[in-house]
Amino acid sequence: MLGRTLREVSTALKQGHITPTELCQKCLSLIKKTKFLNAYITVSEEVALKQAEESEKRYKKGHSLGDLDGIPVAVKDNFSTSSIETTCASNMLKGYVPPYNATVVQKLLDKGAVLMGKTNLDEFAMGSGSTDGVFGPVKNPWSYSKQYREKRKQKAHGENEDSNWLITGGSSGGSAAAVAAFTCFAALGSDTGGSTRNPAAHCGVVGFKPSYGLVSRHGLIPLVNSMDVPGILTRCVDDAAIVLGMLAGHDPKDSTTIQDPVKPFTLPTFADVNKLCIGIPKEYLAPELSSEVRSFWSKAANLFESEGAKVIEVSLPHTSYSIVCYHVLCTSEVASNMARFDGLEYGHRCDINVSTEAMYAATRREGFNDVVRGRILSGNFFLLKENYENYFIKAQKVRRLIANDFVNVFNSGVDVLLTPTTLSEAVPYLEFIKEDNRTRSAQDDIFTQAVNMAGFLSCLQDCQQ
């Protein structure tokens, strides 16, 4: 039952083959068995069981709320959840319990979803491996497959097997691992520069980044306001479409959401790609791209072509400036957004009472890790009066050029771009941590962050595992 699609499980619930409570208990049992993955920061067992019982009552009365009623889901721990601790995997917010639900969380609950818990991440979603949160790194479920163990035995040279596991990617690694390990049927992530798609690719699940404004950001603790998007992780594309249909639409609490009504998202039973024009960006043929990913990319393009689609090479000429532009804009907005965590209103507060300035400094030193502090410092540097024009304003201009590249390609008749997600498959933890966070993020976001700056939709199903 845990390996079925949302529609299949929903049908089973409606037909009485399994009850929401039984389904919830199965997932809770699996969460306990896979605790070593460190996918969850908080397991909301009591809340989940209560929600499952309420769903069971609705089914008995024939009042199902839809395909998500009674379905176990998980939420990344940077979405506000009423009565459940929300930490962003940071000492700064340990013990913080929001008084409200994020809009996307509330929409899931309104449809009868059962909240299993809050998933692990890089601190404040700043990272590409889910290795930099205060609750420890997330382990990729595929690390424990027979295939991977055999592969590593051939390469290992005195390595500690306990540290030889694969990373999940980040920053939504906990959500990806939770879905891949069958502890829930869908999970929310967030995507600023690839944080949903990256771990989806590494964990062999579907990661979907909606267009900016299609889904409300209200209640998502911000990293970069102009790029953040709630993401969806599921085990098949149809499931992602179901969840998107329930989350998309205008939210009066988020002025950036679209105003027009959103039609239901339905996928055809048979996809005819004969009239589809698929673009392959030549700039994405990076020298660092692994032979394995390059091979899968080529196979995917050939598959579309064999089914009648037109596959052509296209150009996104400002790609080489994209990651640098992203770094400037990302850290600048981080510096602004993190200013709210000062120890006065909520979150961590140090015991120093010498002066307000000393309290600020000590609180932020204790509450933030090196990664967050580093991005704050970089952002403040770019926003200095003497640097503002040369860095932030120029980066905004380059951002416009990057967006125009995509517009020009789509206006030329291209329907969709087919690109890799990361440079390589998931790597072992010991190999991953050889590089610092900034370097790793720059490498891992190379193919993904441009669409966040452009505001476009990007989705991926990657089963490289």
Describe what is shown at a glance.
The protein has 465 residues and is an alpha/beta fold. Helix content is 40%, strand content 10%.
Find the count of extended strands (DSSP E, 2+ residues): 10
Percent in helix = 40-55%
Architecture of the domain at 6-247, CATH level 2? Answer: Alpha-Beta Complex
State the CATH class of the domain at 6-247.
Answer: Alpha Beta
The mean pLDDT is 93
| CATH fold assignment of the domain at 6-247 | Amidase signature (AS) enzymes
Beta content comes to 5-15%
The residue ranges in which pLDDT falls below 50 over 5 or more consecutive positions are 458-465
Strand order of the largest sheet: 1-3-2-4-6-5-10
The major β-sheet equals: 7 strands, mixed
Secondary structure tally, helices: 16
Distance between the termini: 22 Å
Rg, rounded, reads: 22 Å
Give the CA-based shape: globular
CATH superfamily of the domain at 6-247: Amidase signature (AS) domain
Structural class: alpha/beta
Query: What is the N-to-C succession of helices and strands?
Result: HHEHEHEHHEHEEHEHEHHHHEHHHE
Domain Amidase: 25-145, 166-455
Subcellular location: Mitochondrion
Catalytic activity: L-glutamyl-tRNA(Gln) + L-glutamine + ATP + H2O = L-glutaminyl-tRNA(Gln) + L-glutamate + ADP + phosphate + H(+)
Active site: 76, 171, 195
